[in-house]
Amino acid sequence: MAFAAHLDAQSELSPVTVDWDLAFLQAPTMQGLAYWQSLRNGHLFPSRRALSPQAMRNFLGHVNLVDVVPGAGDSFDYVISLEGEHAREVFGHLGGRKLREILSPLLAERWRKSFDLPRAAAAPLRLFIRAGTAGKNWLACEALLAPLGEDGHVQTLFWVLATWNVK
Predict the structure, then answer these.
(1) Into which CATH architecture does domain 2-165 fall?
(2) What are 31-42's pLDDT values in tens digits?
(3) pTM of the model
């Protein structure tokens, strides 16, 4: 079921649509979901080691990996450990740094809450939003966020991003 989630009610940023039914519209995200599902092999989610760049060649430029970093207490932070060329074109260089190091506090919290959803649920989701990063609110974004890990622990998020102009 899709629902609009205002991750910050005080924000003038576009609402985020969270879709657990995974009703993707764009080819890269559809391909990413099909690939992720093919790797599960009866498990809740696949391991990061199962990923193969060769198998993702048709949508590889849209693939990003986000490492889950445990914080104090029950908190988590996220580091973009692999940034595909498509995300780099849209957001600039994000790789190798924590969200708070690359985004404003408002955007870092918004992204953190978005990444928290599939991590906590240990399940894939579809996000749809107008880009709020780098002032590109004319850009529609659809993302697959799907867990990767071992022994029931989410260690990484498989993030496939597709964007298009909606001016």
Answers:
(1) 2-Layer Sandwich (3.30)
(2) 999 999 999 999
(3) 0.89
| Structure-token match 């649920």, residue found | 121
Count the residues in the chain: 167
Question: SS in 3 state form for the chain?
Answer: CEEEECCCCCCCCCCEEEECCCCCCCHHHHHHHHHHHHHCCCCCCCCHHHCCCCCCCCCHHHEEEEEEEECCCCCEEEEEEECCHHHHHHHCCCCCCEHHHHCCHHHHHHHHHHHHHHHHHCCCEEEEEECCHHHCCCEEEEEEEEEEEECCEEEEEEEEEEEEECC
Domain layout of the chain by residue ranges: 2-165
